[in-house]
Structure formats: structure tokens, C-alpha cells
Amino acid sequence: MLSHAVAEWPFPANLAQxxxxxxxxxxxxxxxxxxxxxxxxxxxxxxNTNQFYKWFTDLESAMRSETExxxxxYVNTLTDRIQTCDDILRQVDETLDLFNELQLQHQVVxxxxxxxxxxxxxxxxxxxxxxxxxxxxxxxxxxxxxLENITSNFYSPNMNVGNAKFLPLLKRLDECISYVENNxxxxxxxxxxxxxxxxxxRALGMIRSYVLSVLKSASSQVQEAxxxxxxxxxxxxxxxxASVIYVRFKAAASELKPVxxxxxxxxxxKEYVHILSECHKLYCEQRLSLIKGIVHQRISExxxxxGLPSLTRSGCAYLMQVCQLEHQLFDHFFPSSSEDVSSLAxxxxxxxxxxxxxxxxxxxxxxxxxILCELVDILNVxxxxxxxxxxxxxxxxxxPTLERILADIHERLxxxxxxxxxxxxxxxxxxxxxxxxxxxxxxxxxxxxxxxSANANPDVFKTWYPPLEKTISILSKLYRCLEPxxxxxxxxxxxxxxxxxxxxxxxxxxxxxxxxxxxxFLIKHLLILRExxxxxxxxxxxxxxxxxxxxLLEHLRRILRGQASLFDWSRSTSLARTLSPRVLESxxxxxxxxxxxxxxxxxEFIMAITxxxxxxxxxFVTKVTAVKVALSSGTQNKKVDSxxxxxxxxxxxxxxxxxxxxxxxxxxxxxxxxxVVIAKMKLYLQxxxxxxxxxxxxxxxxxxxxxxxxxxxxxxxxxEEKNTINMVSIQELEAQLDNLL
Length: 741
Description:
There is one protein chain. The chain is an all-alpha fold. The chain has helices at 2-8, 16-43, 49-154, 166-182, 189-232, 238-252, 256-264, 270-305, 308-333, 345-365, 369-390, 399-426, 439-450, 466-478, 484-512, 515-533, 552-560, 575-578, 590-633, 638-644, 656-684, 688-716, 719-725, 730-740; strands spanning 541-548, 582-589. A two-stranded antiparallel sheet has the order 1-2. Helix 5 runs antiparallel to helix 6 (238-252) and helix 8 (270-305) runs parallel beside helix 10. It is elongated. The protein starts with a helix and ends with a helix.
């Protein structure tokens, strides 16, 4: 039973194999034992109960022992396995504890390592910052530390401007000064700045002395060369002169070029502006000492050999050549300063002054307006216009002096022009031949007809009145030579006095010849004057301003009477207001005055010719008009009324015989006197259109007089009486008048 019961109990899985093997063995044993037991049981004989019980007990014990032995073996095995597992678990726990402890220690080590790493990083950063600070401090202090080095170098006995170390030291000194100036907050910066500036002043002084020494040496070499060449020749040619004065000087002073270029590169600082200006001055002084004698000699030679226009042209050309060469030489030493005109002013001005001083006395004593005008053309066109425009940069220094000479010529020309206008036009005293009109025109016409076959052009100015010719001549010369404002005043004055002079001559001619000659003379010359001044594009008007004190007389009287006070400043009649003069403006337009005179003269001539030809008709028409007015007014007495009551053609002045007589006089004047007038018009006025314009109103007046007389004849006279009077028709009259022209 137990065996069956135990056999049903399960075994652990890991002991299944062992159980199987053991089971096989057990079964085997069990089978043996069984066989044995069966045999033993067969052999033994139970005789009593005790034996049974004993046998049964032994059997149970054997069975129990057999069963427990197997399980005991299992238990022992399990116990060993449990013990092993416990040992393993204990070792695992110990290992985990070690791992935990190791992890804790790792965390501690990691924390300490990170802290150490951070500390190292901070130290590295601090080190870098300190290095940078030290470098920055060193870079800032090096400007201050340079003081001792620069001082020792500048005060060294071997240091001079020609030394290769001088310019780098000067550059370093400028950098130190700039740095200290920009960081005035540093301690003792003002002390260092003062010392640096002292060193800079010493260096710039050395440069000035060096430049002066080299320039003097170069000048001495050039002067020695000039003396050696001059000993063999009386005078230097221009080529030799340029070679010695410019080429040799450039070679002798070539060592200055790097120093001067260095100075020009630093002109942004005021100290170098000053030293550069000093160098310019020293250079100009040395150059002036070399060339002033030669320039003065050449200009003096021109002055002795040539007239004023040629002297002006030659002197300006030579001076421009000298200035161009000097500018090229200056540009070699001072390339950045050559564009500044003022840099060479101290050299160019004295040279140009020589020419000015030579020309000025000659200009003052020059009285010929033509020469003065030629001088203006030379300076305006040839010198200032052509030469300076082509070489404006190198000759810009000459422009002020040339403009000054031109201004003096303008001033002299203006004075001489005014004198010419006053003496030759306004105060012109005519000779008999000047007033010999129309004989002068007739002679000119004869000469023209004689020379017509030879196609010669006679001088038309010979027939002009001299003041007119001189006016046109002086205006044509001055038009391109003077400023518009100055020329306007002179032109207005010349036209005005010329017009007055022509009018005076017209009156004299009217007395010497006939009034008609005087009028035609005046018309001719006024027309010529108007025609000649027409192309001149100016306004011939001048505004005159003058102070008018005429109103002050009444105010002074009131003050003397006590009616006004000198010291009452509050009233409108105070001294400041009452004693202020008035400014009066008057405008005179010479061209308008000329037109007015011409118009008045033409009208006077037209009326004179009209009266000369048709005066009987005009008198007749006037009397007829007077009679008609008297009859219509009704204010006459009876005696007069009875006289006026007679028919019109029975009046003493209006009988057919009287009318026929006056018509005959008019016809005779048209046929005899009017051709003479036309001939004189042709003599004085060569332009046919001018004669036509002037004759047209005369013709109109003559025709109008005939029309008026014919209307009276038609109204008051019979056809037989009109035939007796025998007036020409208007168409025939107009044709007759047209044929005269």
C-alpha cells in the first residue's frame, strides 16, 4: 500500500532522470527482494501470532526503510541544492552590494572628476583671460614704452633725416601720439603726449633743416653751372637754360622726394600741414632765387625790343612757359600738392609781378584806343582763352595776374574811350570841309561813277560826318573788349553825344547851304547811326540816381520860425525824417531818343517839302475853310455879312484866274522844284526803300491837297471855269509823282 501510495507521488523535475535510474535499480532490487521474500516466506513458517506480528513489523520496517531511503536521498539532494542556491544567492547579494558600493564610489569619483574638470576649465579660461589682458596691456603699454626707444634714437648723434631708420621712427612716433591723444584717460598720458610732441617738433625741425640744406645745395650747384656756362657764352639759350635750371636741379634734389612724399601722405595732421607749407615756402624761395634774374632779364629784353602788343604777347608766352616748367618740377617733388594753386603762389606771383610792373607804366601812358583793344584781344583770346584753357592746371597761378593786367587795360581803355567820346565827338569842332554838304556827297558820287568800271569800292565813311564815323568806330572796337555794364554806359553816352553833334552840324549846314540840306543831312546820319547800333545787343538805357534836397528849404524855414524842433524825435517832422534827402531816379534811353529825333526830323522834312510844293493850294484851302467858318458862325456884323454874301468864286482870292494861277504855281513846283528835292534825296539817301518811305507821305500830302481843291472846284465852279483852271487828274498826278522816284 505504501509502495503504491508513494509511487503515485510526483518527483521533482530535475530529479526525474535520477528517479528513473534509481527506480530501475529499485525495481530490480525490489524484485530480488520480492523473490527472496517469497522464498523466505515460503521457507518460514509462521506458528504464532507474535511471529506474524514480528514478521509484519519487520516487513513494514523493511518497506518503510525502502521507501524513506529513496526520499531521504531526494531530500538530501534537495538540501544540497538549496544550500547551493543559498550560497549562490548569498554570493549574488554580496556581489550586488559590491556593485552598489562600486556605483556609489563611481558616482563620487565622477562628481569629483567633473568638479576637477570644471575647475580646470575655469583655470584655463582664467589663464586665457589673463594672457589676453596681459597682451592688451602690453599692446597699450608698448606705445608708452616706445618713448625711451624713440628718444634714444632721435637724440643719437648718427640719426639724421637721410638715415633709413628716420622715417619708420617718425611713423611710429605719429602712431604713439595718435594713441595717447585718443586715450587721454590713461595715467600720465598728458606727460607722455608732451614728450612725444617735443620729439615730433624736433623731428619736423630736422626735416625742415634737411630740406633747406638739400635745396640750397641744389641751388648752389645750378648757380655754379650757370656761371660756368655763362663764362663761355654771353647769354643762355632757352634749351640750355631749361637743362641747367630744371634737369640739374631735379637731379641734385632727388634725395628729397621720399621725404616730401612721406610728409604729403600725412597731411591729415595739422603739424604736417604746417611743415609741408614750410617746405613749399623754402622750395619757392630757392627756385625764385634761381630764376628771378633770368625772367627779369628776358622780360626787360622784350620791353626794349618790342612794342606794347608784341611785348604783352611775348611776355605772357614766356611767363607761361616758365610757369609750366616750374609746375612740372614742383609736381616732381610734391605730387599731391601740385593741384593746389596756392602752393606755388609765392613763386609765381613775384615772377608775374615782373611782367605786370613792366606793362603797367606802358599801359598808363598808352593813348591809342586801337592798341588797347588789341591788348584786350591778346589777353582774352590768345592768353586766357587758348593757352590757359589747354594748360589750365599748370598755369592757374598766372590767372590772377593776367586778370589784373586785363582789368588795368579795361580801366585805361574805358578812360581813353570816355576821353575820345568827349574830345572827338561831344566837343568836335568841324572844319569847313566837314560841313561842305552836299558838295562832299556830289564829289563822292562822281568818284563812284568814275570807279564803277574798275569795280572799286569807295570809302563810304568819307561821306559821313566825322563824329558819326568816330562813334561807330569806337563802339565797334569796344563792343568785344569791355564788360557789358561798362560798354552799355559808354555806348549810351556815345550815341547821345553823337546825336547831339549831328544835330548841331545839321543847323550849321542849314545856314551854309539850305534847310533841306540840313534836314537830309540829319536824316541820313541818324539813319546810319540807328542802323549801325542795331546789331549791338545791349540796352542803351542808363538809370541815373541823384539826391534831391529841394524839399528841405521849407523845413528849415519852419525850424527857424520855431514851428518845428530839431530834437523832437517822436514827431513825424523830426530832424532825422525832415533832413533825409529824396532819391530821384531818371532813365535815359539813347536809342529811343535817337528814334524820337529821327521821327521829328523826318516829319519836319515832309512838312517842309509839302509846303514848298503845294503851299498855294494849302493857303487857298485854309482861306476857304475860314470863309465857311465865318459864314456858319453868324457872329459877323452886317458889313461883313454883305461881303460874305457874295458867291464864293467872286471872292478876291477865289476867282477862276486866281485859282488857275495857284494851280499853275503848284504844277510848276512839281515839275521843277520836286525833282530837285528827289535828286537831293537820292544824293543823301542811297537806299531806294528809304527814299520811298520818306517820299510816300510827301506824295500823300500833295495828292490830298489836289483832292481838296478839286472837290472845291467841283462844288463851286462851272465846267467852263474848271477847264480854264486846268487841274491835272489825280491818276495823272500820282503817275507823275511815281515817275520822279
